Amino acid sequence: MFPKIFKQLFKKDGTAQAIAMHRLVETLGKKNKRVIYDSFASNFVYGRSLFKFFGHKFDIWILKKIIPGLHEHIIARTKYLDDIIEQSILNGFKQYVILAAGYDSRANRLNIPNDINIFELDQSEVQKRKRSILDKIVPRSQKIIYIEIDFNKENLTQKLLDAGFDANKNTIFTLEGISQYITKDSFKSTLNEINQLTKQTKTKIFFSYTDIAINESPQDLFGKNYPHPGKKINRIKKIVDALGEPWISFYSRNEIEKLLLKNDFKLVEIKKLEDLNDKYFKSVNRVIGEKNIFNLENFVVVQNF
Length: 305
Ligand SMILES: C[S@@+](CC[C@H](N)C(=O)[O-])C[C@H]1O[C@@H](n2cnc3c(N)ncnc32)[C@H](O)[C@@H]1O
Description:
single chain; alpha/beta; seven-stranded mixed sheet; 46% helix; binds S-adenosylmethionine
Protein backbone atom coordinates (compact mmCIF):
# COMPACT_ATOMS: atom_id res chain seq x y z
CA MET A 1 0.00 0.00 0.00
CA PHE A 2 2.70 2.52 1.04
CA PRO A 3 4.74 2.28 -2.18
CA LYS A 4 1.62 3.13 -4.20
CA ILE A 5 0.65 6.13 -2.06
CA PHE A 6 4.26 7.35 -1.90
CA LYS A 7 4.63 7.15 -5.68
CA GLN A 8 1.48 9.20 -6.21
CA LEU A 9 2.46 11.74 -3.58
CA PHE A 10 6.11 12.28 -4.41
CA LYS A 11 7.33 13.08 -7.92
CA LYS A 12 10.93 11.95 -7.60
CA ASP A 13 11.32 14.28 -4.63
CA GLY A 14 10.53 11.94 -1.74
CA THR A 15 14.04 11.88 -0.29
CA ALA A 16 14.56 15.61 -0.95
CA GLN A 17 11.36 16.23 1.03
CA ALA A 18 12.47 13.86 3.79
CA ILE A 19 15.66 15.86 4.32
CA ALA A 20 13.72 19.15 4.21
CA MET A 21 11.35 17.66 6.83
CA HIS A 22 14.29 17.09 9.20
CA ARG A 23 15.41 20.70 8.68
CA LEU A 24 11.88 21.92 9.30
CA VAL A 25 11.66 19.94 12.55
CA GLU A 26 15.01 21.32 13.73
CA THR A 27 13.98 24.85 12.79
CA LEU A 28 10.91 24.54 15.02
CA GLY A 29 13.18 24.37 18.07
CA LYS A 30 13.77 27.38 20.32
CA LYS A 31 16.99 29.32 19.64
CA ASN A 32 18.81 27.66 22.56
CA LYS A 33 17.67 24.17 21.50
CA ARG A 34 18.24 24.06 17.74
CA VAL A 35 21.41 23.38 15.76
CA ILE A 36 20.32 24.93 12.46
CA TYR A 37 17.65 27.33 11.26
CA ASP A 38 16.16 26.90 7.79
CA SER A 39 13.17 29.16 7.22
CA PHE A 40 12.71 27.75 3.69
CA ALA A 41 12.41 24.05 4.57
CA SER A 42 8.77 24.11 5.58
CA ASN A 43 7.65 25.24 2.10
CA PHE A 44 8.77 21.98 0.51
CA VAL A 45 7.28 19.51 2.97
CA TYR A 46 3.86 17.86 2.59
CA GLY A 47 2.20 17.63 6.00
CA ARG A 48 4.19 20.57 7.38
CA SER A 49 1.20 21.73 9.44
CA LEU A 50 1.30 18.48 11.41
CA PHE A 51 5.00 18.87 12.19
CA LYS A 52 4.38 22.48 13.22
CA PHE A 53 1.37 21.54 15.31
CA PHE A 54 3.25 18.90 17.30
CA GLY A 55 6.40 21.02 17.60
CA HIS A 56 10.13 20.40 17.91
CA LYS A 57 10.21 18.30 21.07
CA PHE A 58 7.44 15.90 20.11
CA ASP A 59 8.58 15.57 16.47
CA ILE A 60 12.08 14.69 17.63
CA TRP A 61 10.68 12.16 20.07
CA ILE A 62 8.68 10.46 17.31
CA LEU A 63 11.63 10.51 14.89
CA LYS A 64 13.77 8.93 17.60
CA LYS A 65 11.21 6.16 18.04
CA ILE A 66 11.34 5.38 14.31
CA ILE A 67 15.13 5.50 13.82
CA PRO A 68 17.21 6.86 16.71
CA GLY A 69 20.00 9.18 15.62
CA LEU A 70 18.86 9.68 12.03
CA HIS A 71 17.53 13.19 12.64
CA GLU A 72 20.73 14.21 14.43
CA HIS A 73 22.82 12.66 11.65
CA ILE A 74 21.07 14.78 9.01
CA ILE A 75 21.18 17.94 11.09
CA ALA A 76 24.89 17.47 11.90
CA ARG A 77 25.52 17.04 8.15
CA THR A 78 23.62 20.25 7.38
CA LYS A 79 25.48 22.26 10.03
CA TYR A 80 28.88 20.80 9.13
CA LEU A 81 28.36 21.71 5.49
CA ASP A 82 27.04 25.20 6.34
CA ASP A 83 30.28 25.79 8.26
CA ILE A 84 32.41 24.50 5.37
CA ILE A 85 30.70 26.74 2.84
CA GLU A 86 30.97 29.83 5.02
CA GLN A 87 34.65 29.14 5.71
CA SER A 88 35.42 28.41 2.03
CA ILE A 89 33.90 31.72 0.99
CA LEU A 90 36.06 33.53 3.56
CA ASN A 91 39.03 31.62 2.11
CA GLY A 92 38.42 32.99 -1.38
CA PHE A 93 36.34 30.37 -3.20
CA LYS A 94 34.41 32.13 -5.94
CA GLN A 95 32.01 29.49 -7.29
CA TYR A 96 29.75 27.00 -5.55
CA VAL A 97 28.29 23.96 -7.29
CA ILE A 98 25.56 22.05 -5.46
CA LEU A 99 25.15 18.62 -7.02
CA ALA A 100 21.78 16.99 -6.23
CA ALA A 101 20.67 20.13 -4.41
CA GLY A 102 17.17 18.83 -3.68
CA TYR A 103 15.50 21.30 -1.32
CA ASP A 104 18.80 22.51 0.13
CA SER A 105 18.32 26.24 0.75
CA ARG A 106 21.93 27.30 1.35
CA ALA A 107 21.93 29.46 -1.77
CA ASN A 108 19.21 31.57 -0.18
CA ARG A 109 19.83 30.90 3.49
CA LEU A 110 23.54 31.59 3.93
CA ASN A 111 25.06 35.01 3.56
CA ILE A 112 26.79 34.37 0.22
CA PRO A 113 28.17 37.47 -1.55
CA ASN A 114 26.60 38.39 -4.87
CA ASP A 115 29.84 37.95 -6.83
CA ILE A 116 29.80 34.21 -6.11
CA ASN A 117 27.90 32.18 -8.66
CA ILE A 118 25.97 29.22 -7.32
CA PHE A 119 25.01 26.35 -9.63
CA GLU A 120 22.26 24.08 -8.34
CA LEU A 121 21.81 20.75 -10.11
CA ASP A 122 19.10 18.13 -9.66
CA GLN A 123 16.52 16.13 -11.56
CA SER A 124 14.12 18.14 -13.67
CA GLU A 125 11.00 17.32 -11.57
CA VAL A 126 12.66 18.37 -8.30
CA GLN A 127 14.10 21.58 -9.72
CA LYS A 128 10.81 22.63 -11.30
CA ARG A 129 8.94 22.21 -8.01
CA LYS A 130 11.70 23.95 -6.06
CA ARG A 131 11.77 26.96 -8.38
CA SER A 132 8.00 27.29 -8.51
CA ILE A 133 7.83 27.34 -4.70
CA LEU A 134 10.82 29.66 -4.23
CA ASP A 135 9.50 32.09 -6.86
CA LYS A 136 6.49 32.71 -4.61
CA ILE A 137 8.50 33.51 -1.51
CA VAL A 138 11.82 35.08 -2.51
CA PRO A 139 12.98 37.22 -5.47
CA ARG A 140 14.93 35.17 -8.04
CA SER A 141 18.64 35.84 -7.47
CA GLN A 142 20.96 36.40 -10.44
CA LYS A 143 23.69 34.50 -8.70
CA ILE A 144 21.75 31.19 -8.50
CA ILE A 145 21.78 29.17 -11.71
CA TYR A 146 19.53 26.11 -11.89
CA ILE A 147 20.54 23.16 -14.05
CA GLU A 148 18.42 20.09 -14.71
CA ILE A 149 20.40 16.87 -14.91
CA ASP A 150 20.22 13.10 -14.52
CA PHE A 151 23.67 12.13 -13.23
CA ASN A 152 23.20 8.57 -14.40
CA LYS A 153 22.65 9.64 -18.00
CA GLU A 154 23.98 13.14 -18.65
CA ASN A 155 27.32 14.86 -18.87
CA LEU A 156 28.09 17.21 -15.97
CA THR A 157 30.88 19.17 -17.68
CA GLN A 158 28.82 20.24 -20.66
CA LYS A 159 25.84 21.18 -18.51
CA LEU A 160 28.02 23.35 -16.26
CA LEU A 161 29.91 25.04 -19.09
CA ASP A 162 26.67 25.76 -20.97
CA ALA A 163 25.33 27.41 -17.81
CA GLY A 164 28.33 29.74 -17.47
CA PHE A 165 30.64 27.82 -15.12
CA ASP A 166 34.06 29.51 -15.10
CA ALA A 167 36.89 26.96 -15.09
CA ASN A 168 39.30 29.64 -13.87
CA LYS A 169 37.61 30.32 -10.56
CA ASN A 170 38.29 28.49 -7.31
CA THR A 171 35.24 26.32 -6.78
CA ILE A 172 33.61 24.30 -4.06
CA PHE A 173 31.45 21.34 -5.09
CA THR A 174 29.07 19.59 -2.70
CA LEU A 175 27.37 16.21 -2.99
CA GLU A 176 25.27 15.95 0.14
CA GLY A 177 23.33 12.72 0.60
CA ILE A 178 23.55 11.59 -3.00
CA SER A 179 26.25 8.93 -3.47
CA GLN A 180 23.94 6.14 -2.25
CA TYR A 181 21.37 6.95 -4.93
CA ILE A 182 23.56 6.96 -8.03
CA THR A 183 25.61 4.22 -9.64
CA LYS A 184 29.27 3.83 -8.73
CA ASP A 185 30.13 4.58 -12.37
CA SER A 186 28.32 7.87 -12.23
CA PHE A 187 29.91 8.86 -8.89
CA LYS A 188 33.34 8.00 -10.31
CA SER A 189 32.74 9.92 -13.51
CA THR A 190 31.48 12.91 -11.50
CA LEU A 191 34.79 13.04 -9.58
CA ASN A 192 36.70 12.57 -12.79
CA GLU A 193 34.79 15.35 -14.55
CA ILE A 194 35.34 17.73 -11.63
CA ASN A 195 39.04 16.95 -11.74
CA GLN A 196 39.30 17.59 -15.50
CA LEU A 197 37.21 20.73 -15.27
CA THR A 198 39.16 22.37 -12.46
CA LYS A 199 42.80 21.57 -13.23
CA GLN A 200 43.76 25.27 -13.26
CA THR A 201 42.20 26.22 -9.95
CA LYS A 202 41.85 25.41 -6.28
CA THR A 203 39.00 22.94 -5.82
CA LYS A 204 37.28 21.65 -2.73
CA ILE A 205 34.66 18.89 -2.68
CA PHE A 206 32.36 17.79 0.09
CA PHE A 207 30.60 14.46 -0.32
CA SER A 208 28.93 11.99 1.97
CA TYR A 209 29.07 8.24 1.54
CA THR A 210 27.71 5.21 3.33
CA ASP A 211 30.16 2.51 4.27
CA ILE A 212 29.79 -0.96 2.82
CA ALA A 213 29.43 -2.11 6.45
CA ILE A 214 25.76 -1.23 6.10
CA ASN A 215 25.37 -4.62 4.38
CA GLU A 216 28.18 -6.60 5.92
CA SER A 217 28.25 -5.59 9.60
CA PRO A 218 25.56 -2.94 10.23
CA GLN A 219 26.38 -2.76 13.96
CA ASP A 220 29.65 -1.00 13.00
CA LEU A 221 27.66 2.10 12.03
CA PHE A 222 26.06 2.46 15.44
CA GLY A 223 26.97 3.39 19.01
CA LYS A 224 27.21 0.78 21.76
CA ASN A 225 23.87 -0.82 22.74
CA TYR A 226 21.97 0.85 19.90
CA PRO A 227 18.70 -1.08 19.68
CA HIS A 228 18.40 -3.50 16.71
CA PRO A 229 20.79 -1.87 14.19
CA GLY A 230 20.01 -4.32 11.37
CA LYS A 231 16.28 -3.76 11.76
CA LYS A 232 16.67 0.02 11.62
CA ILE A 233 18.72 -0.19 8.44
CA ASN A 234 16.11 -2.41 6.82
CA ARG A 235 13.47 0.12 7.85
CA ILE A 236 15.30 2.98 6.10
CA LYS A 237 15.93 0.86 3.02
CA LYS A 238 12.22 0.02 2.86
CA ILE A 239 11.29 3.70 3.10
CA VAL A 240 13.67 4.82 0.33
CA ASP A 241 12.56 1.89 -1.85
CA ALA A 242 8.95 2.91 -1.35
CA LEU A 243 9.85 6.47 -2.33
CA GLY A 244 11.17 5.05 -5.60
CA GLU A 245 14.75 6.15 -4.78
CA PRO A 246 16.55 2.98 -3.61
CA TRP A 247 20.06 3.00 -2.17
CA ILE A 248 22.31 1.25 -4.62
CA SER A 249 25.92 2.26 -3.87
CA PHE A 250 28.06 1.81 -0.77
CA TYR A 251 31.84 2.23 -0.44
CA SER A 252 34.74 1.08 1.69
CA ARG A 253 37.20 3.70 2.98
CA ASN A 254 39.87 2.04 0.87
CA GLU A 255 37.74 2.34 -2.26
CA ILE A 256 37.14 6.04 -1.57
CA GLU A 257 40.84 6.73 -0.99
CA LYS A 258 41.80 5.00 -4.25
CA LEU A 259 39.15 6.92 -6.12
CA LEU A 260 40.43 10.23 -4.75
CA LEU A 261 44.04 9.45 -5.59
CA LYS A 262 43.10 8.45 -9.13
CA ASN A 263 41.42 11.83 -9.59
CA ASP A 264 44.17 13.97 -8.03
CA PHE A 265 42.27 14.75 -4.84
CA LYS A 266 43.59 14.45 -1.30
CA LEU A 267 41.53 13.84 1.80
CA VAL A 268 41.34 16.87 4.08
CA GLU A 269 38.87 15.68 6.67
CA ILE A 270 36.44 12.85 7.33
CA LYS A 271 33.76 13.06 10.03
CA LYS A 272 30.64 11.31 11.14
CA LEU A 273 27.89 12.03 13.64
CA GLU A 274 29.86 10.79 16.66
CA ASP A 275 32.73 13.19 15.84
CA LEU A 276 30.36 16.18 15.69
CA ASN A 277 28.25 15.28 18.71
CA ASP A 278 30.06 17.52 21.19
CA LYS A 279 30.62 20.35 18.75
CA TYR A 280 27.00 20.76 17.68
CA PHE A 281 24.75 19.11 20.26
CA LYS A 282 26.48 19.92 23.55
CA SER A 283 25.90 23.68 23.26
CA VAL A 284 22.14 23.07 22.94
CA ASN A 285 22.08 20.52 25.76
CA ARG A 286 21.26 17.63 23.46
CA VAL A 287 24.39 15.47 23.54
CA ILE A 288 23.51 12.17 21.87
CA GLY A 289 24.03 9.11 24.05
CA GLU A 290 25.99 6.10 22.72
CA LYS A 291 22.85 4.06 22.24
CA ASN A 292 21.38 6.69 19.91
CA ILE A 293 24.44 7.24 17.74
CA PHE A 294 23.81 6.41 14.09
CA ASN A 295 26.81 7.08 11.84
CA LEU A 296 24.88 6.52 8.64
CA GLU A 297 27.31 8.38 6.41
CA ASN A 298 30.85 9.65 6.43
CA PHE A 299 31.22 13.36 5.67
CA VAL A 300 34.27 13.84 3.50
CA VAL A 301 36.15 16.99 2.49
CA VAL A 302 38.79 16.77 -0.22
CA GLN A 303 40.85 19.20 -2.27
CA ASN A 304 42.97 18.96 -5.37
CA PHE A 305 46.78 18.64 -5.19
C1 LIG B 1 18.55 12.63 -0.15
S1 LIG B 1 18.22 13.86 -1.34
C2 LIG B 1 19.43 15.06 -0.85
C3 LIG B 1 19.08 16.43 -1.32
C4 LIG B 1 19.98 17.55 -0.81
N1 LIG B 1 21.36 17.35 -1.18
C5 LIG B 1 19.84 17.72 0.68
O1 LIG B 1 20.72 17.30 1.42
O2 LIG B 1 18.81 18.27 1.09
C6 LIG B 1 18.90 13.16 -2.80
C7 LIG B 1 18.80 14.07 -4.00
O3 LIG B 1 19.44 13.43 -5.10
C8 LIG B 1 18.72 13.70 -6.27
N2 LIG B 1 19.02 12.65 -7.25
C9 LIG B 1 18.86 11.32 -7.08
N3 LIG B 1 19.23 10.65 -8.20
C10 LIG B 1 19.62 11.61 -9.09
C11 LIG B 1 20.09 11.57 -10.43
N4 LIG B 1 20.23 10.42 -11.08
N5 LIG B 1 20.40 12.74 -11.05
C12 LIG B 1 20.25 13.93 -10.39
N6 LIG B 1 19.80 14.03 -9.12
C13 LIG B 1 19.49 12.89 -8.47
C14 LIG B 1 17.27 13.69 -5.81
O4 LIG B 1 16.41 14.33 -6.71
C15 LIG B 1 17.37 14.36 -4.45
O5 LIG B 1 17.19 15.75 -4.54
